[in-house]
Specification:
This protein is mostly helical. It has eleven helices and two strands.
Length: about 250
């Protein structure tokens, strides 16, 4: 491909216009259902003595909503940066709800360099190990999704760069080639972004059900949870049908 044949690079005004157009498009139904289930439960988590844990869960939920906006806009390459630390925050919330010692260690991390190093060195592992003891399956899901986020944007590694770039060779000059940054993702990558959002929703709901089972039942979250998961399955099936139809 010659330089003049490369995809046109839009200005920031055109970029915003494309984002606005994407935001006005249809949103997957499971997102509204997941937001309803999480929102009702999280708004009712003002638990005395556990407010740090609640704050971390609010942080994760707020980031989830930001990820929804990014995915809808087409800015899907940034999702791993938003959601990877959110998974970590959820493991901290679970740890601090049961361990005042680790919560104090986390709160003191900005007081001295030694305090910061102590939590950085041992805190994340303590949170992961504690979750494994409580729910092996959920711990494995968080670990797997974290790896996905690290590979595709949580760090500037090869997977992240490949995920957001397109490469073109120049047929008239074997010594030159071109790399074009994908400003807004196409349908396939937007679908993957929504799968990440779907998975993250399930992790939050499963964690909250484990941490606060009484409130989960009292607020009748179970039916909303089931609705979100059913719509998520339908979203995946609809995509599979669309792919099959295109291939035929």
């Amino acid at each position: 491909m010659r330089p003049e044949d490369l995809p046109e690079w839009s200005g920031i005004g055109e970029y915003f216009g494309a984002v606005r157009s994407n935001l006005d498009g249809p949103m997957p139904l499971f997102i509204n259902a997941a937001d309803k289930a999480m929102g009702i439960l999280i708004r009712n988590l003002s638990s005395p003595g556990k407010l740090r844990a609640v704050g971390l869960i609010n942080y994760a939920y707020s980031n989830w909503r930001s990820a929804v906006v990014l995915a809808q806009a087409g800015c899907v390459h940034q999702l791993p940066l938003v959601l990877r630390p959110s998974l970590e925050a959820l493991t901290y919330a679970h740890l601090f709800a049961s361990s005042s010692e680790w919560q104090t260690c986390w709160e003191n991390r900005h007081t001295t360099k030694a305090a910061a190093q102590k939590f950085r060195k041992d805190g994340p592992k303590a949170a992961r190990d504690f979750l494994k003891k409580s729910n092996t399956k959920l711990a494995a899901e968080i670990a797997s999704l974290t790896e996905d986020f690290v590979d595709f944007g949580g760090h500037p590694n090869i997977g992240a760069i490949e995920h957001l770039s397109s490469y073109y060779t120049n047929p008239t000059d074997s010594n030159s080639a071109f790399v074009v940054f994908d400003q807004l993702a196409g349908e396939e990558k937007r679908y993957q972004a929504n799968i990440w959002i779907l998975q993250f929703s399930g992790i939050i709901l499963d964690l909250l059900k484990m941490m606060w089972p009484e409130r989960y039942m009292l607020l009748r979250i179970e039916d909303m949870d089931k609705t979100y998961r059913r719509l998520g399955v339908e979203f995946i099936r609809a995509n599979q049908f669309k792919r099959k139809t295109k291939q035929e």
